[in-house]
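EI: anyone free to look at a 221-residue chain?
SC: sure, send it
EI:
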Amino acid sequence: MKTVSAQPFEFHFEPKHTALLMIDMQRDFIEHGGFGESLGNDVRYLQSIVPTAQALLQWAREVGITVVHTKECHRPDLSDLPPAKKNRGNPSLRIGDPGPMGRLLIDGEPGSDFIEALQPMPQELVIAKPGKGAFYNTGLHEQLVQRGITSLIVAGVTTEVCVQTSMREANDRGYECLLITDATASYFPHFKQATIEMIVAQGAIVGWVAELAALRESAEA
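SC: here you go
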C-alpha cells in the first residue's frame, strides 16, 4: 500500500489495483485550430500542463500501473451527438464541421487524436467517449472491473468539465480518485481552483488532490 501526502488528508492506493486516467489530452482541445479555440478559448492554459502530464504518464509506465486514455469524440454520422450538445455555445465552428485538423471532435480525424507528447502505447486502454464523463456510454467500468482496479489517479482537461464529471462518475461507482493538480487545467484558471475546492470539500466528498511530486514520493517510499 502506497501513501500520498494529499488534500484533504492522505490518499492510499495499491499499484496493482490502480489506473491512471488521462482525460482528453487531444489536439482539438490543446492545439491551435481545434475545437477548444473555436469556442474562443486560450489554449495556452492547457498547453502549460503538457510537460507534467507527460512526466505523470512516464511515472505510471515505470511503476507498471494500468493506463487509460480517454478522448471525447463522435461518430462521423453524428448519431451519438444530441442537439443539446451540438447547438450549445456560440462557436465559430461546431462539432462535425471541417476545421484545420479535420472535422471537429470526430473519431478518426486528426484533431480528435492525442497530442504527440501523450500518445498511447499499444497495450494501453483507449476509451472514445461521446460525453463529458469517461463512464457515459463507454465500457470503461467493465474494463476496470476486469483488471481489478479500485483506485484512479486522474489528470487531463478540462478540470471543471470532463475531469470533474469523470471523477464524480467514478465516485458513484466506488472508485477512490486522486487528481494530480499540476497535470490538469482549464481555459479558466479560477474554474480549476473552484473545482479542486469542490472535490476535497466535506472530507473528500469527490476525491483527493495532490501534486505529481507527492505521488512520486509515495512510490519511492
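EI: The first helix runs from residue 27 to 30.
SC: 👍
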